[in-house]
Amino acid sequence: MTDVTDGVLHTLFRSEQGGHEQVVLCQDRATGLRAVIAIHSTALGPALGGTRFYPYASEEDAVADALNLARGMSYKNAMAGLRHGGGKAVIIGDPEQIKSEDLLLAYGRFVDSLGGRYVTACDVGTFVADMDVVARGSRWVTGRSPENGGAGDSSVLTAFGVYQGMRASAQHLWGDPSLRGRKVGVVGVGKVGHYLVQHLLEERAEVVITDVREESVRRIVEAHPEVTAVADTETLIRTEGLDVYAPCALGGALNDDTVPVLTASVVCGAANNQLAHQGVEKDLADRGILYAPDYVVNAGGVIQVADELNGFDFDRCKIQAARIFDTTLAIFARAKEDGIPPAAAADRIAEQRMAEARQG
Predict the structure, then answer these.
(1) What is the pLDDT of residue 12?
(2) Under which EC number(s) is this enzyme classified (predicted)?
(3) What is the spatial distance between Cα 334 and Cα 344, in angstroms, rounded to a whole number?
(4) CATH of range 155-355; options 3.30.559.10, 3.30.110.30, 3.40.50.720, 1.10.3720.10
(5) What would the DSSP string read from start to end of 142-192?
(6) For residues 360 and 83, what is the distance between their CA atoms, to the nearest angstrom?
(7) Residue 15 pLDDT
(8) Of 76, 88, 99, 191, which one is the catalytic site residue?
(9) How open is the CA angle 250-252-258, to the nearest 5 degrees?
């Protein structure tokens, strides 16, 4: 992106974006690559976060998403106890139309040019096979296939961590971590959501699902006829008797339109940046809805890809991901003690850990 528009510059320097250390605008004309790499913090170690491949409406939207996601990764990695700061990359375009081996290699070279300040992995629109290609252009890549020295699909532990956060929410609100008989609505049953549904069914929860991709819904319902599918998110969030709402698609799921009509008592899902804007966390609390902070409960995947950098061990990672249960409970306790919403409590804990790291 050699021509940086005023809109992009405005997005980069908006104070509410959170004081990022570095933002790199990448362009390779030969392959059509246009990407943004955002490094929010390296206080705890090299920035770690995935690469999102998405058809953004504008460069400004792409930059804003990269900045928000990178900041979220700083908090996620801090709360997960990892020795990594936060970063994120976005590639602009429809992956089904423009993704190519040459484009991914070009992107890998941009990652490599940062000398290890940023370590990338999978995200929306990118997969393990893509990281294998990116890794041919850079050593600072994780989330690769087992055949190429990696850990494979991180969705398994992401879903497991969300499940642990959901159990902690049940413990806090109802005095019992069991989800048996609870009605759980899952929006987005792709990479992570379908694994989450499996955990819920194993515990005999009542599951309601929806997804913009009909094939994803069909796969679940054909395998598990007891699952109820509804037409869209609006229908799901208004479902009578819903105990838990699990947003597992894109961000912004909790906003001025959805929160007032949400019937669930708990929100706990895998999507990043679920709160559309500041103040939504208070709106949830005012309605008596318990919110499990997204970057805390969905940290299972980043735990896995971080472990891969030092020699992957699934059992070790699963033990660490299981601690999301205790971490979530600790956040609820801190929120009650400080008289603030859980999202604010999680932020305080993460910010304290980053500040202590900066001080040495």
Answers:
(1) 61
(2) 1.4.1.23
(3) 10
(4) 3.40.50.720
(5) -S--GGGTS---THHHHHHHHHHHHHHHHHHHHS----TT-EEEEE--STT
(6) 13
(7) 45
(8) 88
(9) 115
Domain ranges for the chain = 6-72+85-145, 155-355
The pLDDT, as a whole number, for residue 240 is 95
Assess contact for 45 and 102: CB atoms under 8 A. no
The pLDDT, as a whole number, for residue 26 is 97
Q: Measure the CA–CA gap between 32 and 53, rounded to whole angstroms.
A: 13
Give, in words, the CATH class of 6-72+85-145.
Answer: alpha beta
Position 5 scores a pLDDT of: 60
Structure tokens at 237: 């969030």
Residues 6 or more apart in contact with residue 167 via CB below 8 angstroms: 177, 178, 179, 325
pLDDT for residue 140: 97
Indicate if 99 belongs to the active site: no
How many angstroms from the chain centroid is the CA of residue 159? 11
6-72+85-145 shares its CATH topology with 155-355 = yes
Strands (E), the chain: 22-28, 33-41, 47-48, 51-54, 85-92, 118-119, 183-187, 206-210, 228-229, 244-247, 266-267, 290-291
Asked whether 141 and 105 are in contact (CB, 8 A), the reply is no
Phi, psi of 339 (to 5 degrees): 70, 40
pLDDT at 153: 83
DSSP state for residue 139 in the 8-state scheme: S
Residue 7 token pair = 């809109």
Half-sphere exposure (Cβ direction) of 78: Cα atoms closer than 13 Å: 27
pLDDT value of position 1: 44
Q: How many CB atoms lie within 10 A of CB 310?
A: 9
Closest residue by Cα to residue 190 from 150, 142, 133, 248: 248
Averages of pLDDT over runs of 10 residues in the chain (360 residues) are 55 64 96 97 97 96 93 94 97 98 98 98 92 97 94 91 98 98 97 96 98 96 97 96 95 94 98 91 97 96 94 94 97 97 96 89
